[in-house]
Amino acid sequence: MNNNPESSIIKGREQFDATVSNPVEATVMAHQEPQETSSAELPSAFNHLPTIFGKNNQRLAVFLDYDGTLSPIVPRPEDAVLDEELRGIIRRLARQCVVAIVSGRGLADVRERVGLEEIVYAGSHGFEIAGPDGLEEENLEAQAARPALDDAEARIMEKLKAVPGAQLERKKYSVAVHFRNVDEARIQEVDAIVNEMAQRHASLRRSGGKKVFELQPNVDWHKGRAVDWLLKTLGLDQADVLPLYLGDDLTDEDAFRALRRSGIGIIVRDEPRATAARCALESPAEVRAFLTRLLAELEARQT
Q1: Fewest C-beta atoms under 10 Å: which of 30, 88, 210, 267?
Q2: pLDDT in the model for residue 223
Q3: Would you say residue 31 lies in a domain?
Q4: CA angle (257, 263, 267) in 5-degree steps
Q5: Cβ neighbours of residue 260 closer than 8 Å, sequence gap 6 or more
Q6: Which of 48-57, 139-148, 195-204 has the lowest average pLDDT?
Q7: What's 261's domain CATH number?
């Protein structure tokens, strides 16, 4: 595979980098199962700017994770804030294209932190969605799991009293247990507590991310499904739309996979891992710089 964006082959909404010159071979490659690559080997997203703006009539849809992408990872989730400069960049970007925040945080939480009414929000890993013009959606299957989440929350909270540093975060459609501040020797104990609740409730499933164990409704829904739903609902599943998804966590991989043939996944990398993303940025600071470049190009097209 060639990561040079100049050699990108675009077939309808399928976009991928390839070292082929034969269109028949290109078509075959486009329908193969998407491959994962080590995040350490991915090129910079800045190298993909010629691809992103390769067509004058191409529209963008920008999907952004919050923690670790727009805001640095912090010891306590409640301390992750969005600064005013970046908020202004996102506000201006939303005048040029659809912008959505897709976060593991609850909808009300992430919406309050970003504080922009003109963009779309998908909270709780996409289980609850809201946006301009009355856009509102909640996963009906997930609603049936809320009593199980209530029970799991109460039981986990009681058990975690004996584990210093563990922090429980309840969202409408998940229970998250953060162990970033837990002594290494006791992380397995936290893991066992969460696993016990997953086994107790068939309506729940385990997931996880950076220094967090999580219980969610056991339904076929995640960030990738939410992105697909938004593209269809907002009329963005079109040949002239290029979706971009920027995220750092394991839960963002579902979105990277969902866009593997139709858009560009951009991982904000730290420790190397296998990823379905196409390219990478190094930090939230680089995310800000990248969004600034996108904004400048889009605004220049309007002049």
Answers
A1: 88
A2: 97
A3: no
A4: 60
A5: 16, 34, 276, 278
A6: 48-57
A7: 3.40.50.1000
Give the residue carrying structure tokens 């009293």. Answer: 161
Q: What is the DSSP string of the chain?
A: ----GGGEEEETTEEEE-----HHHHHHHHTSPPPPEEGGGPPBGGGGHHHHTSSTT-EEEEEE-SBTTTB---SSGGG----HHHHHHHHHHHTTSEEEEE-SS-HHHHHHHH--TTSEEEEGGGTEEE-STT-EEE-HHHHTTHHHHHHHHHHHHHHHTTSTT-EEEEETTEEEEE-TTS-GGGHHHHHHHHHHHHHH-TTEEEEEETTEEEEEESSS--HHHHHHHHHHHTT--STTEEEEEEE-SGGGHHHHHHTTTTSEEEEE-SS--EE--SEEESSHHHHHHHHHHHHHHHHHHT-
- 149-198 pLDDT, tens digit per residue, is 999 999 999 999 999 999 999 999 999 999 999 999 999 999 999 999 99
**Pick from 200, 217, 234: which residue ends a domain?**
217
Q: Are 279 and 290 in contact (CB under 8 A)?
A: no
Which of 17, 65, 67, 228 is labelled catalytic? 65
- pLDDT computed for residue 34 by the predictor: 55
19, 5, 11: which is closest to 49 by C-alpha?
5
Establish whether 228 is a catalytic residue.
no
Residue 193's CATH number = 3.30.70.1020
Average pLDDT, the chain: 88
On whether residue 33 sits in a domain, the answer given is: no
Reported as a pLDDT band with limits 50, 70 and 90, residue 253 is very high
Please tell me whether residues 174 and 230 are part of one structural domain: no
Do the domain assignments include residue 22? no
Residue 103 is part of which domain span? 39-138+221-301
Report pTM. Answer: 0.85
25 occurs within a structural domain: no
